[in-house]
Specification:
Blueprint lengths: L3 H45 L2 E3 L2 E7 L5 H15 L2 E9 L2 E8 L1 H5 L4 H12 L1 E5 L3 E6 L5 H15 L3
Parallel strand pairs: 2-3
Antiparallel strand pairs: 1-2, 3-4, 4-6, 5-6
Helix pairs in contact: 1-2, 4-5
Protein backbone atom coordinates (compact mmCIF):
# COMPACT_ATOMS: atom_id res chain seq x y z
CA UNK A 1 0.00 0.00 0.00
CA UNK A 2 2.87 2.37 0.79
CA UNK A 3 4.33 1.81 -2.68
CA UNK A 4 1.05 2.90 -4.29
CA UNK A 5 0.95 6.28 -2.54
CA UNK A 6 3.76 7.84 -4.64
CA UNK A 7 2.10 6.51 -7.78
CA UNK A 8 -1.28 7.96 -6.80
CA UNK A 9 0.39 11.21 -5.84
CA UNK A 10 2.14 11.40 -9.23
CA UNK A 11 -1.15 10.69 -11.01
CA UNK A 12 -2.77 13.47 -9.00
CA UNK A 13 0.02 15.86 -9.91
CA UNK A 14 -0.30 14.95 -13.58
CA UNK A 15 -4.03 15.67 -13.42
CA UNK A 16 -3.32 19.03 -11.73
CA UNK A 17 -0.78 19.91 -14.41
CA UNK A 18 -3.21 18.98 -17.20
CA UNK A 19 -5.93 21.19 -15.61
CA UNK A 20 -3.50 24.11 -15.33
CA UNK A 21 -2.34 23.66 -18.93
CA UNK A 22 -5.98 23.68 -20.08
CA UNK A 23 -6.57 26.92 -18.16
CA UNK A 24 -3.51 28.49 -19.77
CA UNK A 25 -4.70 27.42 -23.26
CA UNK A 26 -8.17 28.84 -22.59
CA UNK A 27 -6.65 32.10 -21.38
CA UNK A 28 -4.38 32.31 -24.44
CA UNK A 29 -7.35 31.71 -26.77
CA UNK A 30 -9.39 34.40 -25.01
CA UNK A 31 -6.48 36.84 -25.17
CA UNK A 32 -5.94 36.15 -28.89
CA UNK A 33 -9.65 36.72 -29.54
CA UNK A 34 -9.50 40.05 -27.68
CA UNK A 35 -6.40 41.12 -29.63
CA UNK A 36 -8.06 40.20 -32.94
CA UNK A 37 -11.22 42.11 -32.01
CA UNK A 38 -9.16 45.17 -31.02
CA UNK A 39 -7.26 45.09 -34.34
CA UNK A 40 -10.49 44.76 -36.36
CA UNK A 41 -12.09 47.63 -34.41
CA UNK A 42 -9.16 49.89 -35.28
CA UNK A 43 -9.14 48.59 -38.88
CA UNK A 44 -12.82 49.55 -39.20
CA UNK A 45 -11.96 53.09 -38.10
CA UNK A 46 -8.97 53.24 -40.48
CA UNK A 47 -11.28 52.18 -43.32
CA UNK A 48 -13.85 54.81 -42.36
CA UNK A 49 -11.11 57.49 -42.32
CA UNK A 50 -9.28 56.25 -45.44
CA UNK A 51 -8.30 58.59 -48.25
CA UNK A 52 -9.11 57.63 -51.82
CA UNK A 53 -7.27 57.81 -55.11
CA UNK A 54 -10.00 57.24 -57.66
CA UNK A 55 -11.68 53.98 -56.63
CA UNK A 56 -8.69 52.83 -54.56
CA UNK A 57 -8.79 53.23 -50.78
CA UNK A 58 -5.50 54.20 -49.12
CA UNK A 59 -5.57 52.69 -45.63
CA UNK A 60 -2.52 53.47 -43.52
CA UNK A 61 -2.37 53.46 -39.75
CA UNK A 62 -1.41 52.00 -36.40
CA UNK A 63 -3.20 49.03 -34.87
CA UNK A 64 -2.77 47.45 -31.43
CA UNK A 65 -0.07 44.85 -30.86
CA UNK A 66 -1.25 41.47 -32.10
CA UNK A 67 0.17 38.25 -33.56
CA UNK A 68 1.08 38.48 -37.25
CA UNK A 69 -1.75 36.12 -38.26
CA UNK A 70 -4.27 38.56 -36.71
CA UNK A 71 -2.71 41.43 -38.64
CA UNK A 72 -3.02 39.36 -41.82
CA UNK A 73 -6.68 38.73 -41.06
CA UNK A 74 -7.15 42.49 -40.65
CA UNK A 75 -5.49 43.36 -43.99
CA UNK A 76 -7.48 40.63 -45.74
CA UNK A 77 -10.67 42.05 -44.23
CA UNK A 78 -9.69 45.59 -45.32
CA UNK A 79 -8.93 44.46 -48.88
CA UNK A 80 -12.22 42.59 -49.05
CA UNK A 81 -14.27 45.53 -47.74
CA UNK A 82 -12.51 48.03 -50.02
CA UNK A 83 -12.65 46.32 -53.38
CA UNK A 84 -9.55 48.24 -54.42
CA UNK A 85 -7.01 49.10 -51.73
CA UNK A 86 -3.47 49.85 -50.67
CA UNK A 87 -3.02 48.96 -46.99
CA UNK A 88 -0.17 49.44 -44.52
CA UNK A 89 -0.61 48.55 -40.87
CA UNK A 90 1.90 49.40 -38.16
CA UNK A 91 1.77 47.34 -34.94
CA UNK A 92 4.20 48.64 -32.29
CA UNK A 93 5.49 46.27 -29.63
CA UNK A 94 8.06 47.54 -27.17
CA UNK A 95 11.16 48.75 -29.01
CA UNK A 96 9.99 47.34 -32.36
CA UNK A 97 7.17 47.79 -34.83
CA UNK A 98 5.69 45.17 -37.15
CA UNK A 99 4.72 46.31 -40.65
CA UNK A 100 2.21 44.58 -42.89
CA UNK A 101 1.50 45.92 -46.37
CA UNK A 102 -1.16 44.58 -48.71
CA UNK A 103 -2.58 45.50 -52.10
CA UNK A 104 -5.54 44.32 -54.09
CA UNK A 105 -4.78 42.66 -57.43
CA UNK A 106 -5.83 45.71 -59.48
CA UNK A 107 -3.31 47.93 -57.65
CA UNK A 108 -0.52 45.36 -58.16
CA UNK A 109 -1.50 45.16 -61.86
CA UNK A 110 -1.12 48.96 -61.94
CA UNK A 111 2.55 48.62 -61.03
CA UNK A 112 2.66 49.08 -57.23
CA UNK A 113 4.09 46.46 -54.87
CA UNK A 114 3.67 45.84 -51.15
CA UNK A 115 7.48 45.54 -50.89
CA UNK A 116 7.83 49.11 -52.19
CA UNK A 117 5.42 50.30 -49.49
CA UNK A 118 7.56 48.60 -46.82
CA UNK A 119 10.62 50.29 -48.29
CA UNK A 120 9.02 53.71 -47.89
CA UNK A 121 7.93 52.99 -44.33
CA UNK A 122 11.28 51.42 -43.47
CA UNK A 123 13.13 54.62 -44.34
CA UNK A 124 11.41 56.24 -41.37
CA UNK A 125 10.90 53.43 -38.83
CA UNK A 126 14.38 52.00 -39.33
CA UNK A 127 13.67 48.72 -41.02
CA UNK A 128 12.17 47.03 -44.03
CA UNK A 129 10.87 43.69 -45.09
CA UNK A 130 9.90 41.50 -47.95
CA UNK A 131 7.26 39.33 -49.46
CA UNK A 132 5.09 39.15 -52.53
CA UNK A 133 3.81 42.10 -54.58
CA UNK A 134 0.34 41.77 -53.01
CA UNK A 135 1.44 41.07 -49.40
CA UNK A 136 4.67 41.92 -47.61
CA UNK A 137 5.75 41.91 -44.00
CA UNK A 138 8.59 43.55 -42.15
CA UNK A 139 9.64 45.44 -39.10
CA UNK A 140 11.38 48.48 -37.77
CA UNK A 141 13.38 49.56 -34.76
CA UNK A 142 11.84 53.02 -34.27
CA UNK A 143 8.22 52.61 -33.11
CA UNK A 144 8.23 56.25 -31.99
CA UNK A 145 8.34 57.23 -35.68
CA UNK A 146 5.07 55.46 -36.62
CA UNK A 147 3.10 58.73 -36.77
CA UNK A 148 5.62 60.32 -39.12
CA UNK A 149 5.80 57.15 -41.24
CA UNK A 150 1.99 56.96 -41.44
CA UNK A 151 1.75 60.48 -42.88
CA UNK A 152 4.66 59.92 -45.28
CA UNK A 153 3.41 56.59 -46.64
CA UNK A 154 -0.18 57.84 -47.00
CA UNK A 155 1.01 60.84 -49.05
CA UNK A 156 3.42 58.66 -51.06
CA UNK A 157 0.67 56.14 -51.88
CA UNK A 158 -1.76 58.84 -52.95
CA UNK A 159 0.95 60.24 -55.24
CA UNK A 160 1.76 56.77 -56.66
CA UNK A 161 -1.93 56.17 -57.32
CA UNK A 162 -2.32 59.52 -59.09
CA UNK A 163 -4.52 61.30 -56.53
Amino acid sequence: AAAQRPLLRRQGLHADIERMQAKVRDHQKAQAAEEAAAVIDVAKQLLADAASAGDTRVIVGEVPQAPTEKLREAVDWLRQKSGSAAVLLFSPSGAKVTLLAALTKDVVDGGLSAKAILGEAGKIVGGGGGGRPELAQGGGKKPEKVGEATEHVRAWLLEQLGA
